[in-house]
Amino acid sequence: MKTLTGGARRMPLRLALAACASLALMAGAALAHDVTPGDAGYIQEIWGVHIIPFIYLGAKHMITGYDHILFLLGVVFFLYRMKDVAIYVSLFALGHSVTMLLGVWFGWGINAYIIDAIIGLSVVYKALDNLGAFQKWLGFQPDTKAATLIFGLFHGTGLASKILEYRISEDGLLANLLAFNVGVEVGQLLALFVILIVMGYWRRSPDFLRQATYANLIMVALGVLLTWQQVAGYLGSV
Which of 1, 116, 141, 186 is deepest in the core (most CB within 10 A)? Predict the structure, then answer.
């Protein structure tokens, strides 16, 4: 039987660290749930039903949404069975779909800085949960399924708040929102596919559990960074 060399054993951790560093750079260069100027202009200028463009916009948002990706990574980090992955990802999808659709439809908006700070905390929460912190600190394990659903609601509210800022046309609104949500789910599946491939390879390493601790500590730090950026942005805007 072939054994992994030291360099090969460290490769998954290097990949994970590189991915986390990239997410950190993106976090420093953009706001969570932001919409690019070109996409914002497109949203503001169109009327009527545009299914394909909104599917594209939804998928693009999810794939480039570093806060979504970090939370999704945290959710599936220690899920080994596809049945469990499907359950948790479905709960997250249900949460962000409900608040995104209802938030835009009924005009429910929350200050983007505040909601995105909460989303940053969702990353911190999930990483700490993966580290077993709550069991140690509180003496019990919070319901992980309920937490995934609840934080999904916050993620969807953040997206709805950003879309509302661009005053999307009411002409074709429902169809466009549904198309956008389909795109978000497509993007989520694509991101999940990549995450599961990387995790499947990484878990083969005999050092996975030790490296997983470091990776989740990095996720805690990134979540704190995301939260602080939003808090600083809010304080600077008042």
Answer: 116
